[in-house]
């Protein structure tokens, strides 16, 4: 088979990035946007020694698992990868991905993996959206989403993963920019004013936050924008954030509130959070609650335990567990997040949680070796790259009864579980939770106990 050849392939599997996989004469083809069970016509784009990439041209026989995607941009947009796959199958796909990683990378061959905890409604689940503002070729100001693996903006204000209110807010912002001739940021030249619009909605409280990220100190005629936005039911905080750096990082350090409060309030379970434009906060609060409830049940707390929550962010897991533990210590690398964690403890009247700024792999060994700290339960929730070996060594030495590992990447999870299992721990439960429907991402929560 050569480049540009057109041929038919039956999709028999799906890869980690959601791409369809099929074989023709023993040669493997990866086909983006094809789902398991499809028979498709494709065009060879890149041919390697043992495999190739082909572009989907036509679906000859749709898979029984194929559904009509709600979003017309589902193929171009970098946000969703598997919207064309029935949601039940998406969950099975994720379960398999976790199983394969645990087997292949961790060498765990006969673990029972619980069925993925799915969403009741896999749409409109995100409480946060950051829309880039750009000018298109014809000079129109547009907003939308980045196309896959690029910074080209697809004009679209209606994303089915976000809150319905986003559309109304974006229309107001675009209208305002047009009316007062306010420029959009240009990534190539670093010129132009408005870079992004950040919208957050408290799903429990329905409080709304709008923050315009600008490449300058002031937003001309901002009062006019405020006048329109404040009429929206639930509007609680309107602000600008200043980011004059030439960078892909969305937010700068300075926030100026234009109207209302500096923050919105939301709840996960019965814990209340104050969220400012710069705060980290879980984007799917409904599934986060299920995740934390699982963490709580895996931790099996009776009220007497000392718990360490490593990579604690704004202390969400710490505060959830503190209600059932003797005391909880959280460790997080971002100082601002620790400030938020302390404030969140305070507004909830939680007095048995303390927080430390630093690298988990430095703070924990230090507290253990120098201060004689111990733990009955250790929770880790690292970023995608997983835990540092120094940290895993210290955990093994501290010898807690239980370790609860919350992971957003089952590949590094598998590696770290192997490390702990070679040092006296045993995997007792594996529970995947779907926090990001229509994408290939999957959270997993694992309970480990001493042999
Ligand atoms: N447990 C939190 C956040 C988890 S996200 C929650 O459920 O909301 C992972 C967190 O780890 C991020 O907040 C990140 O800033 C932090 N982090 C990254 N590397 C770290 C390190 N080496 N030590 C401590 N925290 C780290």
The proportion of strand residues reads 25-35%
Ligand catalogue = S-adenosyl-L-homocysteine
CATH-assigned fold name of the largest domain: Rossmann fold
**What order do the SSEs take from the amino end to the carboxyl end, as H and E?**
EEEEEHEEEHEEHEEEEHEHEHEHEHEHEE
Structural class: alpha/beta
Helix content: 10-25%
- The CATH architecture of the largest domain comes to 3-Layer(aba) Sandwich
Description of the structure:
This protein has a 7-stranded mixed β-sheet. It contains 9 helices and 21 strands. A hairpin with a 2-residue loop joins β13 and β14. The protein has 451 residues and is an alpha/beta fold. The radius of gyration is 24 Å and the shape is globular. The mean pLDDT is 96. The chain has 3 domains: 6-66, OB fold (Dihydrolipoamide Acetyltransferase, E2P) (Beta Barrel), CATH 2.40.50; 99-119 and 284-450, Vaccinia Virus protein VP39 (Rossmann fold); 128-268, OB fold (Dihydrolipoamide Acetyltransferase, E2P). One of its GO terms (molecular function) is rRNA (uridine-C5-)-methyltransferase activity. S-adenosyl-L-methionine binds at residues 282, 311, 332, 381.
Briefly summarize what is shown.
One of its GO terms (molecular function) is rRNA (uridine-C5-)-methyltransferase activity. This protein has 451 residues and is of the alpha/beta class.
